[in-house]
């Protein structure tokens, strides 16, 4: 008997999970001991090309056959193609004829009509409301921004579904990058509102995140990426997952191997990557390395020709960024600085915050790349502005980390439980994923790198120099910098920034 929406057990479908591309699967009967989630109607789907499965809501499922050509056009990743091949092999072996386009459309027509009429009604109501705070009885009826966007998108717009949370009964690699705690989500919503209000009154222009916009349609431009460190590796992984064509290079070539296996191409030198790609991004450790990458032998500059685009995502001082911009543009190239706020885990989850400045058109052309790697992008104007803002952000981050380490040390000396301190902090206004991770590191005495200690110390040093140049005292950051320098002297450079705790306990 056909289930709601015209779907039933045995149907081949496209299942949409969170912010990731629609994936081919088959509706199957769930294990007897697996309870169906409460709420909207859903089906248990086994995904092709993986050993994963999930409860998927009806409004996140579409017929495989009717949307096949559409999905193949907008998703080009290697894993995706392998999954599609697995579906086709299944169809061939099972000898089940695919329904004709007319049959499949008729099967789902009534459901689609209901959805479209519902969306039009919601939009009409939304447009007619007055701007400003809604009345109390309206708060729960205002449509999400995705409701409006659903009516204006192109191919694949049927998959602009709402964000979903991970079901406790399964884990799927497509969902592994979309989870956030309730507290973090609430904070993010507050920050987003503040940032967008600020943007309306200044030149700051935030770009929407993929978490809000749904799946990403990858640019058809060839993307290059230089530097596969803690941050770069996560960025490239997400570019590939979202179907971008990527060429990679790293100083130590073995770091490229995992990405080549996932469909990336290998560039022998930075110059070669620049010359063969339309837009090349880089994420390098410090100002010297960033300049060497551009000006050194077989460097970026040797591959620059008129129209070639270079996006430097390294955290450097504004002077370095301006210098790189000048040499790139002097050869007819286009330049954008775009340092990122986050760490290894955030990079892997595709939830970075990108601060960009420089060529505005290039910023727009990088939209799908930024959406793949981050939750929010900001355009801050002329080159140098993004570097300045990034150093300020990391100055605050480093100073906060030093304060946390100092507080845990004092708790220990004062015979107070560090575990209780952590719990108290996690229940108060400082609660955050960052605080949770760093406190856990301190309590366990394990400092596996998520944000290298040497890098946060470098950022503190550059922020202090920026303060000196502006004749602005930064005593808190100066003190934190000294503590991190002591931690470096204790050979903690390659550990996580939370290892600064050891500087207080040696």
What is the secondary structure topology, with strand pairs?
Layout: E1 12-15, E2 23-27, E3 42-47, E4 53-57, E5 61-63, H1 64-74, H2 78-94, H3 101-128, H4 145-149, H5 182-201, E6 205-207, H6 210-213, E7 223-226, H7 230-241, E8 246-249, H8 257-261, E9 265-266, H9 270-276, E10 279-282, H10 287-295, H11 300-303, E11 309-312, H12 318-330, E12 334-337, E13 340-341, H13 344-348, E14 352-358, H14 360-365, H15 367-373, E15 374-379, H16 385-413, H17 418-426, H18 433-444, H19 453-469, H20 475-489
Q: What is the H level of CATH, i.e. the homologous superfamily of the largest domain?
A: NAD(P)-binding Rossmann-like Domain
Report helical residue fraction.
40-55%
Q: What's the shape?
A: globular
The main sheet comes to: 10 strands, mixed
Low-confidence stretches: 101-105, 114-203, 207-214
Number of strands: 15
Task: Using the coordinates above, name the CATH class of the largest domain.
Answer: Alpha Beta
Q: What gyration radius follows from the Cα positions, in whole Å?
A: 25 Å
What is the CATH architecture annotation of the largest domain? 3-Layer(aba) Sandwich
GO molecular function: DNA binding; NAD binding; NADP binding; nucleosome binding
Organism: Callorhinchus milii (Ghost shark)
InterPro entries: 6-PGluconate_DH-like_C_sf, 6PGD_dom2, 6PGDH_NADP-bd, GLYR1_PWWP, HIBADH-like_NADP-bd, HIBADH-related_NP60_sf, NAD(P)-bd_dom_sf, PWWP_dom
Keywords: Chromosome
């Amino acid at each position: 008997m056909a289930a709601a929406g015209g779907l039933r057990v045995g149907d081949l479908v496209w299942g949409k999970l969170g912010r990731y591309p629609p994936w081919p699967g088959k509706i199957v009967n769930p294990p007897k001991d697996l309870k169906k989630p409460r709420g909207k109607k859903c089906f248990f789907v086994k995904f092709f090309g993986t050993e994963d499965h999930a409860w998927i809501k009806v409004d996140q499922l579409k017929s495989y056959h009717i949307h096949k050509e559409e999905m193949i056009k907008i998703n080009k990743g290697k894993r995706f193609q392998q999954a599609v091949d697995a579906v086709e092999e299944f169809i061939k072996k099972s000898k089940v004829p695919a329904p004709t386009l007319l049959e499949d459309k008729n099967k789902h027509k009534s459901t689609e009509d209901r959805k479209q009429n519902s969306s039009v009604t919601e939009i009409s109501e939304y447009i007619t409301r007055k701007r400003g705070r809604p009345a109390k009885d309206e708060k729960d009826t205002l449509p999400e921004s995705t409701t409006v966007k659903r009516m204006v998108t192109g191919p694949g717009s049927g998959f602009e579904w709402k964000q979903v949370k991970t079901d406790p009964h399964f884990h799927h690699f497509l969902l592994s990058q979309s989870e956030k705690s309730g507290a973090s989500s609430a904070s993010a919503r507050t920050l987003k509102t503040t940032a967008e209000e600020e943007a309306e009154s200044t030149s700051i222009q935030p770009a929407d995140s993929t978490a809000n916009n749904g799946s990403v349609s990858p640019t058809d431009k060839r993307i290059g990426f230089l530097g596969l460190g803690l941050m770069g590796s996560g960025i490239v992984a997400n570019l590939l997952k979202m179907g971008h064509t990527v060429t990679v290079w790293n100083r130590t070539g073995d770091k490229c191997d995992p990405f080549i296996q996932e469909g990336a191409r290998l560039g022998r030198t930075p110059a070669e990557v620049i010359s063969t790609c339309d837009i090349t991004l880089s994420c390098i450790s410090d100002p010297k390395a960033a300049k060497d990458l551009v000006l050194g032998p077989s460097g970026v500059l040797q591959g620059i020709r008129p129209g070639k685009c270079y996006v430097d995502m390294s955290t450097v001082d504004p002077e370095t960024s301006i210098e790189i911009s000048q040499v790139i543009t002097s050869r007819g190239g286009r330049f954008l600085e775009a340092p990122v706020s986050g760490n290894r885990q955030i990079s892997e989850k595709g939830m970075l915050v990108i601060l960009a400045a420089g060529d505005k058109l290039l910023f727009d052309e990088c939209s799908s790349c930024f959406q793949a790697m981050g939750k929010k992008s900001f355009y801050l104007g002329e080159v140098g502005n993004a570097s300045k803002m990034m150093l300020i952000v990391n100055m605050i981050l480093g100073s906060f980390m030093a304060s946390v380490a100092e507080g845990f040390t004092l708790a220990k000396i004062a015979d107070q439980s560090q575990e209780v301190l952590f719990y108290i902090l996690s229940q108060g206004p400082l609660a955050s994923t960052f605080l949770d991770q760093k406190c856990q590191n301190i309590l366990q005495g394990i400092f596996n790198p998520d944000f290298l200690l040497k890098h946060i110390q470098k950022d503190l040093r550059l922020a202090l120099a920026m303060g000196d140049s502006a004749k602005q005292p930064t005593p808190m950051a100066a003190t934190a910098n000294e503590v991190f320098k002591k931690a470096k002297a204790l050979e903690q450079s390659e550990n996580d920034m939370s290892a600064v705790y050891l500087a207080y306990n040696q």
